[in-house]
Amino acid sequence: xxxxxxxxLRQAVRDRYGATARAATAGEGADCCAPSSSGGCCxxxxxxxxxxxxxxxxxxxxxxxxNLGLGCGNPQAIAALKPGETVLDLGSxxxxxxxxxxxxxxxxxxxxxVDMTPEMLTKARLNAQVHAEAVGHRNxxxxxxxxxxxxxxxxxxxxxxxxCVINLSPDKARVFAEAFRVLKPGGRLAISDIVATADxxxxxxxxxxLYTGCMAGxxxxxxxxxxxxxxxxxxxxxxxxxxSREFIRDWxxxxxxxxxxxxxxxxxxxxG
Length: 272
Known about the structure:
This is Arsenite methyltransferase. Helices cover about 35% and strands about 20% of the residues.
């Protein structure tokens, strides 16, 4: 894919999720269905967190407006976060997973969210102020950047989490290479994402609204495994969740997307 094509896709994603953030800030909810520059609705249909594997207590533990319901799983469930660790969230949105991670790593830990959408970053930083007042310390920060070009130094973090974001990247191999770079030796990936169990038909793959809606850009499981191993990761494991087809169906009603797509947990380790 040419750089210009990649840039066009990133801009379409940025436009769509910028609209999501603006609508949520305006109190219209995250499921704004006003047409965006790329057509269609501005994001997948928001999902109740409990359907994604979060507990009711987790959903209630974050600032109001941090949970936009746009994930496809719960990376916290596989991250096994420990006090004092530094965590990076790829595509952190309004900060939901960052704030949950901050409670696990505690005051001695640190959480960094990276997102390329300015409107999301603004919303996340406002939420961070509320979170800091609630927990009594500040251990969460948000940085503007692309997940293919992370604004972090080499070997800076212990754990990388992400929730339904890497499928949106037009250069996933670069994402994993950057993830490997910024992880410390022995660091780990704990990701929830949409993956393809079979090749999507051309009409679905070329649908921009399905791409920005977290579907058409999904990579096949075997391709993801190869990219992770090519980046240097070991102990790569991709675990599909068949039950996720129930909510993925609602993202694109009337289309056969669930014949090809499923949510999965993706885990990997950087050698120590």
